[in-house]
Amino acid sequence: MRTKTLNELAKTIRSKNAGTDKITFDIIFREQENYEIVKKSGVLNKKLICQIYGLEEKDICDFVEFDPAYAIKFTIYRKKPSGSAGETDIFGCQQYPPLLDIEIPV
Amino acid sequence: MKRELTFLCPNGHLGFAPTKEKSFYIGVETKPDYILCDSGSDDIGPGPLGSDICASMKSTQIHDLELMFVEARKLGVPMIIGSAGDTGSNSKVDMYVDIIKDLAKKYNVSKFKLGYFYSEVDKQYLFTKMNAGEKIEGLDGRSDLTREELEETDRIVAVAGVHPFIKLLEMGADVIIGGRSSDCAVFAAPAIQQGFSEDLSYYLGKVLECASFCAEPYGGKESILGTISENDVKVKAMLPEQRCTIASVAGHAMYERSNPFYEYVAGGLLDMTHCKYEQYDEKTTRITGPKFVPINGRVKVKLEGAGKVGERFIGIAAIRDPYSIKNVDKMIEWAKSQVRELFGDTGYELHYIVYGKNGVMGDMEPVKEIKSHELCVVVQGVAPTKQMAQEVTMTGTRQLFYSRLPEVKGTAGSVAYVLDEVIQASAAYKWTLDHTVEVDDPMELFPVNMIEVGK
Q1: B208: Cβ–Cβ under 8 A, 6 or more apart, which residues?
Q2: B141 close to A (CB below 8 A)
Q3: pTM for the full predicted model
């Protein structure tokens, strides 16, 4: 089956703090077509996120498909609040790159 | 009541990076009814709140306040600022009030009313509530506040909703400097005070709070104009190169939020599930359908608190030897064991961040096998005193040099140093409170003040 990566399909893939205790991930598509391809493929789901990031499902507090913005969004609890000593990403903005290579059947 | 009101928002976090002037002045030419923005964030970590400093540069804060103040007074419209000085602590409210007074003098401005409110919460206030059996409920998966966590806290701010802003507007304020507040309350308050629906007023705040982050192409610190009417909210990019599109405006609803449909504020919940977005003209998006669900009974107000963990030093070490790179965990274990021999198992923190391996993502890093030909190790030691923090960090860094890996060819030193010393960093703080407190009257947390300034 032919596949494309999320990197090829999405316009924006980002991560950012959502408050002090969570990091939220946004995957936004330029057009409805690519959004629907990814949404309908069902590849991007909680199980895959847990696999990629080494999390358990309870670590994911939100997973939503947001039609008006052609976006898929999920949010995870941080292991430590942002800015704690030893914590590595105060803004949470460099946690998305592993999503780039997710293969979606097209 | 006017049929429409317009709101010019020049910056999503006043002072953090300078407001861009071109789009601001284009916005001023439209003669907005309000010039307003938020100046705070909890993105900056717990340090600024805990140690009561700004994350922003003072020169930028003055620059941004000056732009807004001068034009608001010229137009004779209210200027409103929320979360003064990044954290919205009392000293930062006072600092912004002083800047406004200085600007009034500098421009020889005629008399106006300057209103301000504080947001800091005394620890004793919460102890008293807890002693009376009230729960200080945890947010974002946190459990209810314990006495111990409260004791560890140095500073607490409550996050204001619209209430103190409305109060000051009713008292006739021309300029408002707010303590810590919900970003969206800064905008919602004047709209509600002028009689517009809560549904649209809170949405107006939500969409305007980050200024040009709701426009495309991406470009921060540019001005945005919001318009509220009886039926809709419209949002328009002021920079000629930017547009507010359905995608950019809807996309912004998700930004920095765990869920794009709901926004909690003191007093209720903004539900954006049924928002409808339309392209009104090339640069403007029109939104209808948001719903505000007010809370019944006592109002829950969010609390943010930070406490000092200890003094902190940083050490830096780098590795080039391929066998050492493969066995970096063993090197770190050796260095930690040497710190334990000197300082014991507890009473300090020692963290190793290994760049080139998993320095950015830590345990969440899916790439387990590394191909880097060099690594950088950042050592962070935290302890109650400066001397101990320095010694913990020094030992933890220097012992990497002496780490005993049996098969390493190089026996003269296991790491390369930029500096053979450790560097003092800011003290380490942690977020101790991300909770809510219930109050009968939200104003009890936000005392308001009004003074006359100008000639």
Answers
A1: B7, B9, B184, B187, B214, B224, B226, B235
A2: yes
A3: 0.92
